[in-house]
Design goal:
Helices cover 52% and strands 4% of the residues. The chain has 159 residues and is mainly alpha-helical. It has a two-stranded antiparallel sheet with strand order 1-2.
């Protein structure tokens, strides 16, 4: 499934299409385009945005096919194509196509909130590790300096 920005959904211009009523289900509840797409396992906003860029006959075919898979009364299923034709009028085709010029604009990089903490922890670990491995070993230094002391020459035996 594609990534969606939850706060941007209300600004897409697709809500009038997605919340439009498709019909009444057999159990009496109202069915919307959003619920049709969600039941089919699609991301409704992504799917609607894709459809907005297609030629009208293709959108009608795809939406009618989706509606025909829902638990609607037989008459509503027969009228799926007419319903799809009515509903696609709510798609903001011009607005979506105008926004395509912004599609090439790079999205600014956002860091997760934990990233600075992780970066500092890594830097501290590297610093501590390099300090431990490069610090002179005082025990070895003492032994080395002791070994460098020249022994005094043996004294001559006295008679």
């Amino acid at each position: 499934m594609s990534r969606t920005d939850v706060f941007a959904l209300k600004n897409t211009g697709l809500n009038s299409f997605l919340f439009a009523e498709v019909g009444t289900e057999s159990n009496g509840s109202m069915l919307t385009v959003l619920s049709v797409l969600a039941r089919l396992g699609e991301d409704p906003w992504t799917q609607a945005a894709l459809w907005a860029n297609l030629p009208t006959p293709d959108i009608i075919d795809r939406l009618a096919h989706s509606i025909a898979q829902m638990p609607l009364p037989p008459r509503a299923l027969r009228d799926a194509r007419q319903t799809a034709t009515r509903l696609i009028q709510l798609l903001p085709t011009r607005a979506i196509k105008a926004d395509q010029s912004n599609a090439a604009t790079p999205v600014p990089l956002t860091w997760p909130r934990w990233a600075p903490v992780a970066l500092i922890a890594i830097m501290l670990a590297v610093s501590l590790g390099s300090t431990l491995f490069t610090a002179p070993n005082t025990k070895d230094a003492a032994l080395t300096s002791f070994a460098q002391i020249e022994p005094s020459p043996p004294s001559a035996p006295s008679n």
